[in-house]
Amino acid sequence: MDDRMYVCIDLKSFYASCECVERGLDPMKAKLVVADPARGRGAICLAVSPALKAMGVKNRCRIYEIPDKIEYITAIPRMKLYMEYSAKIYSVYLKYISKDDIHVYSIDECFIDITDYMRLYGMTATELAKMLLDKVLEETGIYATVGIGTNLFLAKVALDVTAKHARNRMAYLDKRTFEERIWHHRPITDIWNVGRGIADRLARHGVYDLFGVCTMSEKILYKEFGVNAEFLIDHAHGEESCTIQDIHNYQSKSSSISNGQILFEDYNFNDAKIVLREMVDMLSLDLVDNNLVTDSISLYVGYSKDVIKPAGGTKKLGECTNSSKKLVKYFLDYYDSAVKRGYPIRKINIGFNNLTDEYGLTIDIMGESEDERREHSLQKTVIAIKKKYGKNAILKGTSLEEKATGKMRNKLIGGHNGE
Asked: Staple 410 to which of 180, 193, 279, 391, CB 3.0 to 4.6 Å?
């Protein structure tokens, strides 16, 4: 395969930058945090502007951690607005790059294979990357940072480790420069896909950087990390075989959907049950809407301040279903058996696993009750009403109870204000 060239573009302090642009402020100079003060001084700041970061304010800090002597603007999160900015920036890329050569990694980050476009526009990788950054700034007012690399991994590392500290917000890595600049970089957790857990396990072997990984016995690495050792070994040598085309062509062998929330206050055993019922009701509508059924559920319940270990796990159902009534019962039974009473609850996550097309199953129609057929028809009607008039247009009585959260969460995007 011919040599490829990739860029990884990150929109600088994206949420904060959007809020600055909306206010006619320079995103690089304004002191602004994106947070919801209504959640208390312990609320997490979703974004901190570069000017505040330069003053030592850490990204994703809590409001109370910002020194009182610093004057700054607080912007309530507006996820819909940020999605609109992200879509507009993507449209800027599409003026110069085919969607087939773009992989959207997150709302504020993407990978682009620029190999063919360097020849098309008669530019070097750096010139083309700068052109894209300049166009984004010109059309949206948002600054961006870019990592350039000879594979996806090197582009990402160039972005995360080097470009974010460069004056021109750009950096390049190939295998040679990777070995010179990154091999001995610490902490190793700055490297893409090397989390705290992996770092701690490497530290037990006296390894604290990628050069150390290169010198380790592969036998020990595979014993420690299993098949995932292959990725760690490749990345330690600056190698990555995956391409954007591979990502676009990938199809998961199994599928699942999930939903979770962090509660705004400590919930007792029974009140958390109300929230669980709501969540199952809502997520089951997604199954019906997509003509899917599940035969396995997952439940995770986290206690406040980690007073004891989280409860839950995965449970096989013995049947395939998308019936809300059945799924609620399965979850409530599992909840009753797994969750300890008398402890404050703060997190709930649910999941439907092993999803299958309901039309692809051999179903005993005669064995299906009239109640089940009526429920399925009702679920379809509820979905149609919600799509036309909004998620809160029709609610179950559960969502009107004092400790319910569904009505409020229907107005959120990604757990934050959606306006």
From this structure: 391
Q: Which two tokens stand for residue 413?
A: 């995007």
Specify whether 311 is located in the same domain as 281: yes
Strands (E), 224-383: 257-267, 292-303, 311-321, 345-353, 356-357
Left if phi > 0, otherwise alpha if psi is -120 to 50, otherwise beta: which for 112?
beta
Residue 365: predicted pLDDT: 45
Q: How far apart are CA 98 and CA 284, in angstroms?
A: 36
pLDDT tens digit sequence for 207-252: 999 999 999 999 999 999 999 999 999 999 999 999 999 999 987 6
DSSP 3-state assignment of 9?
A: strand
**Burial of 276 from C-beta contacts in 10 A (0-12 / 13-18 / 19+):** buried
User: Does the pLDDT of residue 366 top 50, yes or no?
Assistant: no
What is the model's pLDDT at position 403?
67
Radius of gyration of the chain (CA): 25
Residue 387 placed within a domain = yes
Please tell me whether residue 399 adopts helix, strand or coil conformation. helix
Provide the residue type at 345 as one letter.
Answer: I
Q: Going by C-beta distance under 8 Å and a sequence separation of 6 or more, which residues neighbour residue 412?
A: 79, 418
Question: Is residue 417 within 8 Å of 36, Cβ to Cβ?
Answer: yes
Beta strands of 5-68 (E only): which ranges? 6-11, 32-34, 47-48
Rounded to an integer, the average pLDDT of 180-200 is 96
**What φ, ψ does residue 74 adopt, rounded to 5°?**
-105, 125
Q: Please name the amino acid found at residue 316.
A: K
Q: Which two tokens stand for residue 142?
A: 């948002």
pLDDT score recorded for residue 389 = 82
Do 225 and 322 fall within a single domain? no
Q: What is the pTM of this model?
A: 0.76
Q: What is the DSSP letter of 237?
A: T
Whether residue 306 sits in one domain with residue 226: no
pLDDT tens digits, residue range 273-287?
Answer: 999 999 999 999 999
Counting the structural domains of the chain, the total is 3
Boundary-marking domain end, from 79, 98, 115: 79
Same domain, 271 and 365: yes
